[in-house]
Each structure stands twice: as structure tokens, then as C-alpha cells.
Write a structure and sequence with these properties.
The complex is a heterodimer of chains A (216) and B (323). Chain A folds into two domains: 105 residues, Jelly Rolls (Sandwich); 85 residues, Arc Repressor Mutant, subunit A, CATH 1.10.10.10. Helices cover 39% and strands 24% of the residues of chain A. In chain A, the strands form three sheets. Chain A has a four-stranded antiparallel beta sheet, with no helix packed on it. In chain A, strands 2-7-4-5 form a four-stranded antiparallel beta sheet, with no helix packed on it. In chain A, strands 9-11-10 form a three-stranded antiparallel beta sheet. The longest helix of chain A has 25 residues. Chain A is elongated. By secondary structure, chain B is an alpha+beta fold. Chain B has 13 helices and six strands. In chain B, helix 6 runs antiparallel to helix 7, helix 9 packs antiparallel against helix 10 and helix 12 packs antiparallel against helix 13. Chain B is elongated. The chains are: A alpha+beta (216), B alpha+beta (323). The interface between A and B is large, with 55 and 51 residues.
Chain lengths: 216, 323
Amino acid sequence: MALDLSMFNRFAVNFQAGDIIFCEHEPGDNFYLIQSGRVQIVKIIDDLEKIIDILQPGELFGEMAILEEAPRSASAVALDTVKALEFNRENFEILMKGTPQIALKLLKLFTKRIYDQKRRFLILTLDDPQAKIADVFLMLSETQPVSDNSVNERTFMTTVEDIAHWAGISPSESKRILGHFAGQRRLEIFPDKIIVQNINDFARFVSSKRRSQVSE
Amino acid sequence: MPKAANYKTISIVYFKGDINEKIYILNNGRVSLNYNDIETGQEMHDLIKTGEFFGVKSAMGKYPREETAVVLQDSSMIAFSVAEFEQIVLQNTRIMIKMLKVFSNQLRRIHKQVRNLLKSGNDVVDPETGLFNIGEYYLKVSKQKQAVYALRRYLTYYPSGKHSAEASKLLDAAESGATPSFSTPPASSSREPGSDLSDVAKSYYNAVSLFSQEKFKEALSEFKKIIEDGADGEYEAKARYEIGRCYYNLQKYDVCIKHFTSLIQKYPKHPDIIDALYYVGKSYEGTGNKEKAAGFLKKIISMARDEAPIMRKAKKALKGLGG
């Protein structure tokens, strides 16, 4: 979808490769639409800079600033020379009216975010940390299509830190629980992926925990 | 093609858990969306008004229906595919903006709920310490450029914060550490070379750090020294600007006005020119000359980009004048 964004040239900003566009924990009031170059979304977790996402031209980022002036939850760093359009809450409606395609993009992004957050909420309402972690795998499995439903093994391109983030548990505690699962041969941990032996086993485990919580 | 569909009382348009890419608009009748509140588990019934879309989020997001759509009385509706729906809203931005508002409210609510749950379970660092830690981290891994950004931001937002003295020190280190690493590789011609420049930079940031600790008198004399020592164009202009800010904070309003007026004449293209106008306006306010103060603030509002922080500051200051 080629958009004519020339009327927004006065909102254009440029960054050199390596420039921080905004920094985690900084108060945020702008959001961006990439016109050229790529942007890395990174977070520093346990003294390591972790890449959460790499965004391409045409993608939006920092959009949570439209909703609230909450601190940024991650940093955005220019990966190449980046040209982007910078908007804020005040000129948001002008943008939406001028280019409905961007509004539609945002609508889709919000749809996905609402679902992700609801799902995350469900994980966090579990009392048992083991069940929380098992439920993170269920969530990941729901969003990745499977070719053969009769196979119970699932491979997740994820890390201990990711799992910890979603489960709302410290990375060290998550590591311990994942180690415990690995000891029971319910999963295998690799540097770049985790293989769950039987996703249905986790599904049963989580739903029994959830039921017992409701009946308490 | 959009399809019209009629439903009898107590029939179901879709069940919770269904995967279905249709989006509906209710023409007439009564439809209720039934679901359990994720926080309380309580059963909820949201009534759809005629002319309202439903099934939008799950269809667009391609995830299972989150609610059961029950027909309460004979109803007619039109079913759209996602692509058809997109065509409609693209041509009708009012609908889309309304939906964005609804979705953003939902997102804000769920975010808050998630945050509350996280807060009770985990130690979350406050943003002030978080920002400082990031500057510290980047310096530790020798990413000076990023360290400088984070630390400068820290000092901008928390000039007298609990880590400000430490942040100034680290910023010094990051700034001075940056120079040698730029002069070693042969292909580094784009950066300012020369070691005397780094001395100027050092004293400049030393003065900035004094300023951030609200030691305005000391900062003022440091900035003056930079100019006396014959700094180059860039640092001279920067230091002159900071001198004006020092005067303002020392409440020497008349001197501040004079200083910035001559700065604006000398450097009409100074990057901080609008901020300079702001301090002139605020200084007039300090001397009790509200009329002049308002004049300068209005000028800023006419000049600044809508989204510039100075815009908000100027508007706020103007409001404070009662004008």
C-alpha cells in the first residue's frame, strides 16, 4: 500500500544508525511512522540488551503514547539511517483524517494488543508460578499455526527472559521452574528456542489449576 | 459481497470460541454480546445498538470469538468480510476514529489491569532509576552514544533527581570517552576531531552538571570561563545560551532579558532560539511586566511546532498569566 505522505513532511525526523529514538523509562508523548530504514525495539533485561522486534518502513511504533503518557516500556534505536514521521496526541486526529490507511493500521495494532494483553492478564491471574509458565506456552502456541494437530510437540523460538516477562516472574525464578520442567522431561531448553514435548499436557495442567482456583 | 442475514429470536450469530472472519452490522432488532468479565468472572451482557458493528476485533485480529452473540428479538444484519469492512471504514474515517477511541479505551483499561497484577507480584523499578540504569548500562558496555542520550535525558527530566550527581559524572565520562574511540579508526572523519575540543566539551558538561545540581552561580562562572577561554563557535553558542538560563534561575531577570536579546541577535539560527524567547517571556513575568511576557509567549506559540514540548510550556505559562 503506497501512501502519499508528502503532506506530513513537516513532521519528518531523521536519525543516524545507532541513535536512540526514545529510551525505556523515558516519559513518552510521541509516536512514529517509519518511512525509510529499520528500527530496533530493545529492552535491557538482567544487564543484557535484548532485541524484541525489528520494524520495517511502513510500521508504527511508540503508539502507546497516544493513550497515556506512561514511561516507555522499551527503547527504539535506529538500525540504519532512519526517516520517520513524528506525531503526538494533539496532531493525531489530523493524521487519521488525512490518511485513513494509517488509522486502519493502528486499528489492527490495537486489536492485536488488546488480545495479547487480555491473554497476559489470564496468565497473571493464575496463583501457581508453574501454571503461569505452562500457560505462557499455551499462549505462544495459540498464536502459531500448526500444520499437523496430531503432533503434540511444539517448538517455540523464545528465551527464558521472554517467558519470565510474560509470566510476570523474575528471570531467575523462571529459570528454576523451566529447569524443573526440563528435569521432568516436559521440555527442552536451547539458547534460542524451547521445545515443549506435549502441549496438551500443559493445557490439562493449566485448566486443572484454573478450575481449582475458581472452586476455592 | 456483503450478505444480508436474518436471525430469529434466541438464535446465535456466533459462539464464544468460534473462529470466523465475519464482521456484522445490526440493521434492526436486538443482539446481545455475552461474556465473562476477565477480572471478576461476572457474566456480562453488552447490548448492540442498531447501526453498530460487532465481531470486529476477533475478525480483524484472526482470533477466536471472545463472546457469544445472542439474538434477543428477530433481527436483520449485514455480514462483511474483513476486506469489505476495511473498504468501508477507509471511506468513512468518522467510524474508524470512533472505533479507535473505543479500542484505545479498552486497551488502556486492560493495560491498567495487567499493571496492577504485576505490581502486586514483582518489584518494578521506578522510571527515574530505570532511566539512570540504562545510561549506566550503555556506558558499561562502551556504547557511548547511547549512554550520552540516556544520561542527558535523565538530567533533562530529573535535573535534581536522586541520581543526578552520578548521572552528570557518568555523562562526563561518556562524553570524554567518546572522543578517543572516534579518533582511532581511520574512517572516523565525520566526527569532530582534536583533543582540545574534548577539553571544552568536558568543561561544558561539568558546567551543565553544576546547573543540574542547581548550583547556578558556580555554573554561571564555568560557562563564562568557557567563553573567555575562546571556545569554538558551537560551544560558545551553547555556553551563551546556558548563561542566560543561569541568569534566569538566579532571578536576575533584567540581565537575563538583555543577555538573551543579544544572543538572539548574534545567533538568529541558534537551535534553542525558541527556548531563549521563553526565558525572555518568563523573565518579563518575573519583573512584573505581564504584557510583554504574554507577547513573547504568544510569539513562541506562533513559531513552535505543535508537538514541541516548548509549545506546551509556553501555553501553560500564558495561562498562568491569566491571558
